[in-house]
Amino acid sequence: MKAIKNPLYFILGILVLISMASCEPKALTAEDVLVSSEEQLAQELVKENPNGYTIYNINDLLSQFMGEEGNFMSDSSLYRTRAYYDGLYLFSIDTLPTNGPGIYIRGRVVTDDYGGNFYKTLVIQQTKDWTTGADIDQQNLRISVDMGSAGGMFQQGQEIIIRCNGLAIGRYANQPQLCIPSNNNNIYASSATQKVGWAPGRIPSARFRKATRLIGAPDKSKLVYETLSLEDLDNKYLSKYEDVVGARKLDGRLVKITNVHFTNSLDSFGTEMQCHIYNVELSPVDGNPEEDQYAGTFGPTTGNVGYPQSRYVKDASETHKVLVSTSEYAKYAYYYLPAAKYVGSITGVLSYYMDNGNYAPDGGEWSISPNDMGDILPECQKEDADPRWIPTEWKKGTPQPEE
């Protein structure tokens, strides 16, 4: 064996190994991110906030910190042009104080990004008043986070508490969300002249993880679903679309609508139209979800523009309807819509989207966003269902099956 003649080489090698080891990030432990009791949580919050702190109810946070115009706009720093409607701001940003008393919100995660329908977005639900401890009607908030596979750490049913200092609260297409300011200067985007400017942006992953604690273990059974017929949903929420300000606190609600069926129809700029049927012998394009945005699947292509596709469901009367919204990147995006004979429930997040581009205050612009296929007509997917719906994925060259 060749001996090391100069002991300095040996010492240098040891120092390099020590240096490499010290560069490795410290592995997270359960204690770093998880609190197991209310007493532990209170102790940590007192220690973290020498100037005091408040855990806000979600709607109180919006009322206190989210102004109509926001505090981020100036003559030289404008929101995108789609931000303005009839004196209201559909896009806005209000920055939250970095210093001073701690500003917290607390809720349970209702979304799961495994199915691909919630990309870099969390929605949390609050069902208790943090001052009195009393049960309250659900309050909800979207959180825009630049984190892939967020559901790995922030699972559906996981209760979390977030220190909001230094972040922002804003509206994107009138949807309130916890965010950071983001400027879009992509002149090559679709309708770029309408989109250049400031808008709510995604919170960096590391920053969000640092600001967020997990409380206990995930528990889906504690999520609260408001169960409604489509008529009740229409009367209670959808008809209130023209109340642009009031609708902000309805967005994000977790709902379950019952006794509905798909109609193989979609909304095209306010007009209901039938989806295209796929039969390659008649057309290689029509009904092909890789090429046709009007295909009879949940989320056909948008040409990578990225907006969610929507398909109508109705009740037995055919007079009440709502859109079911699916991303073209969802795992079930290219599955055919179920035939009208399959009647059941749909669970998801009530979504309200409005900008001044192609939208107007019309109840037809409400939608429900499921987490995945399991939230769509689950009763009809059971083996003993009559009739039973077996979800079928589009396959190139194979005609759409008749049901």
Give an overview in words.
The chain has 403 residues and is an alpha+beta fold. It has seven helices and 21 strands. The protein has two domains: 33-222, no CATH class; 226-381, no CATH class. The strands form three sheets. Strands 1, 2, 5, 6, 7, 8, 9, 10, 11, 12, 13 and 14 form a twelve-stranded mixed β-sheet that branches. The relative contact order is 0.13. The model has no long low-confidence stretch (mean pLDDT 88).
Outline of the structure:
This protein is an alpha+beta fold and 403 residues long. It has helices spanning 7-23, 30-33, 38-48, 58-65, 192-195, 205-211, 230-236; strands spanning 34-35, 53-56, 84-85, 88-89, 92-95, 102-109, 121-128, 135-146, 159-163, 168-172, 175-184, 197-201, 203-204, 212-215, 226-229, 254-268, 271-274, 309-314, 321-326, 344-352, 366-369. It is 14% helix and 30% strand.
Oligomer: single chain
Compressed to H and E, one letter per element, the order equals HHEHEHEEEEEEEEEHEEHEEHEEEEEE
Main beta sheet, described?
12 strands, mixed
Report the helical percentage. Answer: 10-25%
Strand content: 25-35%
Low-confidence stretches: none
Mean pLDDT: 88
**Number of β-strand runs:** 21
Q: What's the domain count? A: 2
C-alpha geometry: globular
> CA-to-CA gap between the ends?
77 Å
